[in-house]
Amino acid sequence: MKVLVCGKGGCGKSTIVVLLSKEMAERKNKVLVIDSDESNTGLHLRLGMTKPEDFMNYFGGKKILFERTKEITGKWKLDDLPKEYLSEKGNIQLLSMGKIYEFGEGCACPINVLSSRMLEILDVGEKEFLIVDTDAGIEHFGRGVEKGVDLLVVIIDPSRDSILLAQKISDLGKQVNKPTYYVLNRVNRETEKLLLDSVDKEKVIAIIYENKDVFMSCLSGNELTISLEGIKEIADRIESEKRKLVVKSI
Questions:
Q1: pLDDT at residue 93, as a whole number
Q2: Helix and strand totals (H; E) in the chain
Q3: pLDDT number for residue 50
Q4: CATH at residue 110
Q5: pTM to 2 decimals?
Q6: pLDDT of 61-92, one tens digit each?
């Protein structure tokens, strides 16, 4: 199953991606984390890995990426990905699509195009999961990144902007026929009630409360090794959705 994690900037997407990936790996699954956020520089640290080389360099770099992505054909298995562009720890692999490094080098559009194409052609096996950490907002919808995934998970923090964006993402998810679920993140008892009153409760699959240990780990840049009940609930729903897909394909 291919899961895309999205939401507004600062809502906790990367933290959820890391903790969810570790939970899925502990369940004896092989997990590929795709970093498609051109501005995120620390995802590998939170996974306890070395920084992988940008996958866009496999195709010759950003300047010629538009043309080279047209040459990508057929289906790829996770084992087909070039090992020199992967970081690995246990059952988790990390693939970084590309980053912005220099002033004036241009937009991230080629990186999004590469993400979109790879998500379409990557096949995942029975005990394999692909989890995508996206850039903030909804530009990736404009680039068609969601076309190749099975499920959308929207992270909502206690802010009106986050609520409104989640509603917009849900609408966009309907346009591409992708199930969309919400995770309420960094809430307390007061903000939990306010958020639940402001969103479609049927879409909420987990609530993650403010956690000082998570905050300090992210601030220090150390590997995230914390287990949260809300993360287990997300993993349970993803496995349930995968079983539904298997039944449909029979």
A1: 98
A2: 9, 10
A3: 96
A4: 3.40.50.300
A5: 0.93
A6: 877 877 788 778 889 999 999 999 999 999 99
CA distances from 75 to 113, 123, 148 (A): 17, 7, 12
- Contact, 125 vs 78, CB < 8 A? yes
Identify the bridge partners of residue 151 per DSSP, sorted by sequence position.
Answer: 3
Full DSSP string of 173-214 = HHHTT--EEEEEEEE-HHHHHHHHTTS-GGGEEEEEE--HHH
Q: Going by C-beta distance under 8 Å and a sequence separation of 6 or more, which residues neighbour residue 31?
A: 21, 24, 25, 91, 92, 93, 128, 129, 130, 131
Domain containing 230 equals 2-249
First to last CA, the chain: 16
What's the total number of domains in the chain?
A: 1
Query: How far apart are alpha carbons 157 and 14 in whole angstroms?
Result: 13
Tell me, what DSSP letter sits at residue 225?
Answer: -
CB 1 within 8 A of CB 245: yes
